[in-house]
Amino acid sequence: MSVNPTDSSSQLIISNNEGVPDSPGKTADNKQVTSTEATRQIPAAPGEKSTPTTSLAERKIDLGSDIATADDFMASIKEMKYFASIQDLIDECEKFSTNGIQNGASGLNPATLASASLTSAFNSINYASGERMEAYDFNGNYCVNTTPAEGATTHGAKVHLENAFDQIKEMQKQENKLSEFSSVDIALSMVLPKKRSMLRPHIEAVFSIQENKLKQ
Fold first, then answer.
1. DSSP string, 123-156
2. Among candidates 175, 181, 174, which has minimal Cα distance to 207?
3. Least confident range of 9-13, 61-65, 100-104, 209-213
4. Is there a contact between 199 and 117 (Cβ–Cβ < 8 Å)?
5. For 95-121, what is the HEC assignment?
6. Dihedral angle of Cα 12, 13, 16, 22, to the nearest 10 degrees
7. By the 8 A CB rule, do 189 and 83 touch?
8. What counts of helices (H) and strands (E) characterise the chain?
9. Which of 124, 127, 132, 111 lies closest to 153 in space, CA to CA?
10. pLDDT band for position 141 (cuts 50, 70, 90)
11. For 134-139, which contacts have Cβ atoms below 8 Å and span 24 or more sequence positions?
């Protein structure tokens, strides 16, 4: 079946209220139409009482409201640059950097020890938090349930963070420029970005306690 595009009498635009016929290419009164001339409506979803009155072609979609802009990422970008600047400062200090260790500096420098303690703290929180821990005596009798609450600072993590705090304070003594930053920010700069969100509240809590101890 063919449609003569120059024959206006053979074309028909179906109104919004008229259904598309079951027979392809023909209306109920046997007039020929092309599929592009029929305004198809989205069928009503099950349970809906009415059919949408606006065709897909007539709908306007405001894409701008769903697309993230550069401003949405500025805060996180600034934070990453800030932590990177602290890490660069640490790396520039030969006694803390990998190059310094290769050139004879001690591998047990405070930066290396602090980094190791922070990693250990993360592992303790990530793997032990929420896991059931029960203590038993020598004879195998139940003593106490020591399971930490979900997200709590485990005992092991607390010890590691206290060690990290002490090492960072030592770093600030050896490199005066590091005193311009808080011990919390220095610690966060020494861990991978993906670990910061988990470690931040634990670092802040433990470091706050340690700072208060120094003031007493």
1. HHHHHHTTS--EEE-TTS-EEEE-PPPTT---HH
2. 181
3. 9-13
4. no
5. CCCHHHHHCCCCCCCHHHHHHHHHHHH
6. 50
7. yes
8. 6, 2
9. 124
10. confident
11. none
Average pLDDT, the chain: 74
CA 40 → CA 8, 46, 52, distances in Å? Answer: 21, 18, 11
The CA–CA distances, whole Å, from 87 to 5, 51, 148, 192, 197 equal: 71, 60, 32, 11, 18
User: Of the candidates 12, 15, 41, which has an alpha carbon nearest to the alpha carbon of residue 27?
Assistant: 12
**Cβ 124 vs Cβ 160: under 8 Å:** yes
Give the model confidence (pLDDT) of 148-165 as tens digits. Answer: 666 678 888 999 999 999
Section 107-122 average pLDDT: 89
In this prediction, residue 13 carries a pLDDT of 44
